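Final report, closing paragraph on structural work. Over the funding period we assembled a curated collection of sequence-structure pairs, and we close with a single example.
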Amino acid sequence: MSATATNAPRTSTLPDGIGLSFPRLVRSEWIKFRTIRSTWWCYSILVVVTVGMAVLLGQFVTDSGASLPQDAENGQLVSINTASVTLTALVVGVLGVLIISGEYGTGQVRSTFTADPRRTGVVLAKATVLALTTFVVSAVSTWIGVAASAALQASRGVEADLADPAVFLPILGSSVFVTLLALLAFGIGLLVRSSAGGIAITLGILLVLPIILSLVGGLLNAQWVADVYAFLPDQAGSQLFAYSYEGAGSRPGVVLNGWGGFGVLLAEVVVVGALALTVARRRDV
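Its predicted structure, as stored:
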């Protein structure tokens, strides 16, 4: 009887999943995230490019000695501080893929999914860490660039109104844009489980696909191609940091504003992420 009692399985009195709460998963993923070399390299490039281009353009972009209206001065400062977004979007796209595909490449994902068999929590924790860190790094570096470029422009007689929502919202929107692109790339990396494949698809969507649609649209002179082009991730998301003002010209076809572009890009991120998570939960590692 004593042997039977000794060998009987014990029933844990601890609540199920006490070690797998979402904050704990986030903390675990944050430790992994900050110890990866690619994280530091990508964010270092992001900071250098963002601040460097803002300072460079702030120093050399001039008003040719003419007095500019306030809208033009505001738009010039926004353009100076969002010119680097095209490059930094590629950097965070690569990082978004590597943060998940790297675990598949090393096999570490097996232990990750063993700790969280449902896989949903750990995937969302990874995405949360990636999104928060990318936004903070992008926003801080962007506003450092804004401070530097605004001072340089002011010395040339161009004084933008930083308190104007038409100025600070696009600047803030540039950080939202790169964050959403990082999440889109993360979903692609989770879906294909390959660093090379994920990066190729991400860069293809951001670089190659717009060129193809532009060429096709120009050859066919078809409005529907231009409308499709407006819904590409980079084109829709670019409305987040576009400077808008009264009197801006209109164009035919589908035209997205800032909120419309944000909604389209967010929907694309959610769709790709949901598909990738569904596939990740159903297939073997």
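Confidence is low (pLDDT under 50) at residues 1-6, 8-18. Residues 21-243+251-282 form one domain. We thank the funder for supporting this effort.
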